[in-house]
Amino acid sequence: MEEIIEQVGANCGAHIEAYSKCVDLNPQNWKTSCISLEKELSKCSEKYSKRLLEAKQKCSDFTAKYEACLSQNQLVPEKCILELKDLYNCTNEALKTKPAAQN
């Protein structure tokens, strides 16, 4: 996981900063206000970390459930803690598996 964070941080720092700033400036509607920045950050992250892309693909159902919950509960995102935990567990499990090229 640290390797992925380092890769994304080194290559997508400007995207991370722009997205974080947008979220901070839009606490009530960050999910809709910052969607384009979120997509740019996601694209950049996937470009520089194939393992992250693999995890995202493996956990797409959990991601969809979490995003749907956030959309329905923008003012109280705490309601989505179970969906977040499920997504976290899936991602963690997916990242434990070494990519095929490294086996």
Low-confidence stretches: none
Structural class: mainly alpha
Percentage of helical residues? over 70%
- What's the Cα radius of gyration? 14 Å
Assess the beta-strand content as a share of residues: under 5%
Given the C-alpha coordinates, what overall shape results? flat
Largest sheet: none
State the distance separating the first and last CA atoms: 17 Å
GO biological process, one term: cellular respiration
Domain IMS import disulfide relay-system CHCH-CHCH-like Cx9C: 5-46
Pfam families: CX9C
InterPro entries: CHCH_domain-containing_protein, CX9C
Tags for this entry?
103 residues, 2 domains, 0% strand, CX9C, CHCH_domain-containing_protein, IMS import disulfide relay-system CHCH-CHCH-like Cx9C domain-containing protein
Summary, kept brief:
The protein is an all-alpha fold.
Strand and helix map with partners:
Blueprint: H1 2-25, H2 30-33, H3 35-48, H4 50-58, H5 60-72, H6 81-96
Helix pairs in contact: 1-3, 3-4, 4-6, 5-6
Q: What can you see in these coordinates?
A:
There is one protein chain. This protein is mainly alpha-helical. The chain folds into two domains: 1-48, no CATH class; 51-103. Helices cover 78% and strands 0% of the residues. It has six helices and no strands. α1 runs antiparallel to α3 (35-48), α3 crosses α4 and α4 (50-58) packs across α6. The two termini are 17 Å apart. The mean pLDDT is 88. InterPro entries: CHCH_domain-containing_protein (IPR052848), CX9C (IPR031731). This is IMS import disulfide relay-system CHCH-CHCH-like Cx9C domain-containing protein. It holds the Pfam family CX9C. Residues 5-46 form the IMS import disulfide relay-system CHCH-CHCH-like Cx9C domain.
